[in-house]
């Protein structure tokens, strides 16, 4: 990927990179907590070479995006939808990881027509965290490359999830691939299987890699994603007005 661009979405400045042909079908990459757009470099470059127009934003509080101090899964969802609106992307394929799967799934629930296909890597888990996650009340001693205030916000919502997150999974209409990391992941794999069973058109695959599948087993991850997304759909005009 190349130049860092910026866009105003949902009242927040989001930084992003884009790769692939200007008239390629749009694909959105949403990273995990504590990561940023660069975590997708190998994936985005490979999919851009397949003909996708790959957009990789830094979520709010991460990387070069604005750190507004206010965080929730719903705000991340609204940021994603605002990002699509700001760039004129009416219908996209979404590939997401961990925290990004909450934003992706909630966006697919809120606006089903906006999501063509959906890849969820190790998430979402709309169940109370067990054991509960600690909710920090002050900044860590070591500086973080992201806004530390994300941590209590995410922990509080993981400990006490909105029941609608589980209930409304049935509203996702996009064909979905859920990629699980197997027993070495810190996430409960039986709960990921429950999520896959709840989404109407969802296929569950396991790659024995733990939580960081696309980092630690990129070839296997790309093989599954490419098979799921094949064939690459027809592109769109270079002015970006259609997804």
Sum up the structure in keywords.
243 residues; single chain; 8-stranded mixed sheet; Rossmann fold; alpha/beta
Q: In words, what does this structure look like?
A:
This protein has 243 residues and is α/β, with parallel strands linked by helices. It has a single domain (5-229), classed as Rossmann fold. 32% of the residues lie in helices and 19% in strands. The protein is built from 8 helices and 8 strands; from the N terminus they run βββαβαβαβααβαβαα. The chain has helices at 41-49, 73-87, 99-110, 150-159, 163-167, 189-198, 213-216, 218-229; strands at 5-9, 12-19, 26-30, 53-57, 92-97, 115-121, 176-180, 202-206. It has an 8-stranded mixed beta sheet with strand order 1-2-4-3-5-6-7-8, with helices on both faces. The longest helix is centred in the N-terminal third of the chain and has 15 residues, at 73-87.
């Amino acid at each position: 990927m190349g130049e860092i661009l910026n866009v105003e979405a949902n009242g927040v400045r989001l930084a992003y990179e884009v790769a692939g042909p200007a008239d390629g079908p749009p694909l959105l990459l949403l990273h995990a907590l504590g990561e940023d757009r660069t975590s997708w470099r190998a994936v985005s470059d490979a999919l851009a070479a397949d003909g996708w127009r790959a957009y990789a934003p830094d979520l709010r509080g991460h990387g070069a995006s604005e750190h507004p101090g206010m965080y929730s899964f719903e705000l991340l969802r609204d940021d994603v939808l605002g990002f699509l609106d700001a760039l004129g992307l009416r219908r996209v394929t979404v590939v997401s990881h961990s925290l990004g799967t909450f934003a992706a799934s909630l966006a697919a629930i809120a606006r089903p027509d906006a999501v063509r296909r959906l890849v969820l890597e190790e998430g979402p888990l709309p169940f109370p965290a067990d054991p509960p996650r600690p909710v920090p009340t002050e900044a860590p001693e070591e500086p973080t490359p992201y806004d530390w205030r994300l941590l209590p916000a995410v922990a509080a919502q993981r400990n006490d999830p909105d029941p609608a997150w589980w209930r409304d999974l049935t509203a996702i209409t996009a064909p979905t691939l859920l990629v699980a990391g197997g027993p070495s992941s810190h996430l409960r794999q039986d709960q990921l299987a429950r999520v896959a069973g709840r989404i109407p058109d969802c296929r569950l695959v396991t790659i024995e890699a733990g939580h960081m599948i696309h980092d630690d087993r990129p070839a296997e991850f790309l093989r599954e994603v490419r098979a799921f997304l094949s064939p690459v759909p027809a592109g769109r005009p270079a002015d970006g007005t259609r997804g």
